Amino acid sequence: MCGVVGLIGEPKAGQKLYPALFALQHRGQDAAGILSYDFEKSQFHLEKDLGLVEDVFTDERQQRLKGSMALGHTRYSTIGTVDKEDLQPLFLSYPYGIGMIHNGNVTNYDEVVDYLRHRKLRWTFSRNDLEILLHMTAVGLAARKETGSLSENLAASIKELLTHVQGAYSAIGMLADQGMFAFCDANGIRPLLIGRKKNGANYSYCFASEKQVFFGLGYEYWRDMRAGELVLVDKDLQLHSFVLSEKKPKPCMFEWIYFAGSETEWHGRPVYEVRLKLGQILAEECLAQGLDVDVVAPVPDTSRAAACRLAEVLEKPYREVLIKNRYVQRSFIVNQPELRKMMVNLKLSPVESEIRGKKILLVDDSIVRGTTSARIIRLLREAGAEKVYLASTCPPIRHPCFYGIDFPDGESLVAFKKSEADVAKVLEVDGLVYLPLSRLKEGLGLNDFCSACLDGDYPVPVSSENFLKTRHQNIGGDGKSEVPL
Ligand code: SF4
Fold this sequence. Notes:
Elements: E1 2-8, H1 13-22, E2 31-38, E3 43-50, H2 53-56, H3 59-64, E4 69-75, E5 90-92, E6 98-106, H4 109-120, H5 129-144, H6 150-164, E7 167-175, E8 179-184, E9 193-199, E10 202-208, H7 212-217, E11 220-224, E12 229-234, E13 239-243, H8 253-259, E14 265-266, E15 269-270, H9 271-289, E16 295-298, H10 304-314, E17 322-324, H11 337-347, E18 348-350, H12 352-355, E19 359-364, H13 371-382, E20 387-392, H14 420-427, E21 431-434, H15 440-444, H16 452-455, H17 464-470
Bound molecules: iron/sulfur cluster (SF4).
Iron/sulfur cluster (SF4) binds next to helix 8 and helix 16.
């Protein structure tokens, strides 16, 4: 998963993306990059590196990002490596000069690489999915450059791309002297939103993974990108839209449950409101199971809203029994195992005075590999909890995700081929309450969404064996970007 943002028609766009990227830091902490374009000098400026946004963009680097059109990216590596050649934005010089960023995974990568090599004589340099999206766009535009309008040529090129490239991706690109474009995969699995701000008779536009970016930039949230949609904003700030797929949208349910910031919304469903509703449903399930609870506590940060509502419905005190250390972010870069373990332990510390002798109902957004849950449960017991119950706002995750959330190996999932009672035994918890899969539609307030990791119904077919063998690199991914699962 990654965070993407694109801005056109805004003075100092590249420099303004630096603060905007802070609003997307939670979507990726491995690396960050900005590519800007100066229409007056016909010049690109690119700055990208490993690290957090504030580490990458020194004052000097910010000053170099000139121009009124820019792309920004925060990277979380689920495919490829955390090496420099995989960092985004990527750039190709022909045709026009194209820069691009994306969020998501391609599921038929080898097939597309083969097509590019043998049919189009194009070679890729990295293992980054974005590179093939970039080449496919370039191939389409190069073949049509001499005829037709840019918008028609781009629409035909992206339509071809959507046919050839399977998976879940949202991408934003820019063309030298031409403008900015954005597109989503045929099923609209990954989020991309459009914001705008009045600019004379026209609008300046912003594309972003999440809505809070618009707030930070002084833009209004206008609408979501549709499944299979291409939007081009040309250099005169005229917007052209093409819907290139007739498939039903299948937005990733995990965005609401875990990944997205609480302040965003998608498909008209505010994330915070959804999380409150999930807490309500969980409370009803807890009541049905007759759990004897003293306090309700969230696993910070995502599950706070659900835990608040759950406590209200159960009429039990809400307490913070685990404190997250916001300064311990990237423990994977610590090389000594002993120090790394200490860093992981320090991410969450128990508040013993609120734990000792209590029957605690812990609320988490999801249980993926179960390693974090088991560790937290042990932590609460060692701090003197009388009983520990666990409630998850996500139904049991029993199938891998190949679409950009990092759990592509089914066997690593704690609920893989297990009943809920078996999972409770593995986690050594006194009671386990999952949100029932049958109530997820009610919780999200949506009828159609991707829930493949819960029910195995994949909107884009993929060979699990092949994907694991050829795509999943050893990058230290854990499915959640902040806390190992
Ligand atoms: S499989 Fe699960 S995590 Fe992956 S896109 Fe679908 S709903 Fe999201």
